[in-house]
Here is the input.
Amino acid sequence: MTDSSRYLDIFLREAGEQIAALQKGLLELERDPGDRTRVRELMRFAHTVKGSARLLGYDGVGELGSRLEDLLAEIAAGKRRADAPTVDLLLAGTDALARLVDAVGRGEDSAFDVAGFLAAFDRGEVPAEGVAKSVERDEAGFGDTVRAGVKTLDRLLNRLGELLIARSRIEERLAALKGMAAGLDDAAATALRQFHRDLEGEFREVSALAQELHGDAMALRMLPLSTLTGGFERMVRDLAREEGKEVEFRVTGSSVELDRALLEELRPVLLHLLRNAVDHGIEPQNERVLAGKPLRGTITVSACHEGNSVLIEVRDDGRGIDPVLVREAAVRKGIVSKEEAELLSDEEARYLVMAPGFSTRDFITDVSGRGVGMDVVRQNVERVKGEFVLRSTPGSFTVVSLRLPLTLALLDAMLVRSGGETYAFPLSFVAESFKVAAGDIATAGGREVVTLRGGTIPLVPLASLLGEGERPALPPSGRIEAVVVRHREQLLACSVDRVIGSTEVVVKGVGEQLKEASSLSGATILGDGTPAPILSVPWLFSRAERGVRTGFRQAAAEQQAARTRGKILVVDDSLTTRAMEQGILVSRGYATEVAISGEDALEKIRHQRFDLVVTDIQMPGIDGFELTRRLRAIPDYREVPVIVVSSLAKDEDKRQAMEAGAQAYIVKGNFEQGTLLDAVEALIG
Here is the structure.
């Protein structure tokens, strides 16, 4: 007897490949029963498994492989037709063969009564015992040996990611080093510049090597979509047969590669969508006949590259999603009220199928409902920074489009500043960035909007969405900078303090403390070492839909009113007095700035034009009298009104103020809000 343990790994790998080829070939044979070349090919697969198993003493595997080969030989000789019952029998045999080989790999005894199975098989019966339905098989999809290797690869990629971050930091240090030469004497500066050039050359070499290493490691993590779709054809066939339907399953773009980690996230998504397409989408044959459709329905999975993303679509030519029925189901489930449902467009109504808790037996059976729900499908896609788009025409088709990044390790991002922090938008969600004048902001449906390329887009401050600010502030220029993001074919403009630009970033986890922060989909480290949260665009849309205060139009109106009414400079060394006077003037719509001394006031008027000055008298350095006299010596300020607000109440003080050029004098002891406002309005309106 051969020592089988020495060759176990080789046998398991070979047998697995042959069984997979058997299952795939049988499905192709069912579509073309007269293909004798394929039958002979299938006989070779069964023969190989049989011979290897008998050589190593795995009798059960050998016997079952022999029975499969014999049945295929009958088909090749024309003694038996490759009809549906025969293909069912052969598929059941390959399922049982897979279970036996799996048991061998685990070192276990036979997983079922092999003799009983073979007896039923010889009678032409599809044995129930020993067959695992395709929809119930382990759906992990990747063997243990590969998983162990991938963990090592993940660690390698993480280290390489850290190297890329360190590269960015060194690049910033090089830029700083170059600037140091400016403050040195000629000899030292020349030496430093030469040192900088040498160091920069070495850095470029190391940088290129790091980039190549990261690319090579990423290539090892990339797997074709066929890694997933290989087993889907059998699953679709079995589900369709159980429901008395005929379905043709097609895959295009199966060679498109994605990050292995992303494929694992994608597997349950595609499984659920395909189950739903078979159970809910494809109609029974009698309905298809009445609708003038072919008896056999079609389900297609397609994939293609779009820039740095992959577009995967699941399409069926079934009954489609009727928005009327969706509204009714959502109202029954309490997801929306009847009034809210009636206000929804048909497109918005269809997306209710993705709401948590949405289900109805009109749409989802036990088959399509026992996996993850559509809300979890949506969450899985959003977790990998992807986008989920649903299109359907009742009676015609349904298409689910998934736009996904190529990898989860790197991300093309748009960096912005808002509220003193730097944030990253996944670039796949960004439509464009723009600047808009505050006066061009309009309102529609109670929301502030902007018009861009002929369309109307809601405008919301990013800081307000993130809860960082109650009221947006207009920049001095009056032009607001914003990033337009898209989700489910909808657009939203998020105003920010500044758009930094787009770049490739290394994606890091957010840690346990922020794990539940649904507003974030990750984080990255910038070149200066500071972290930047990666924003979840779907969350921003959901937050905007709940209503967020904007107020740009109000701020613009107040700014315009302030410009119209005049700009005032308040000069006082007392913080309390400055704050009180400024508050009074701003509340009436005047643009107001403050100065803490006479010297500070003269510095400010060098750069700005004021329509009126309110000043104290007793201040360190230049007092109010001297400040007023100096203002009168400046050509642009000879006619600018000056109001003195002082605690000095003597007539001599008032006379001196008037001689210096002041137009009004208010004593602080008798000060009232109305007194100051009356004086200001009398002088500048």
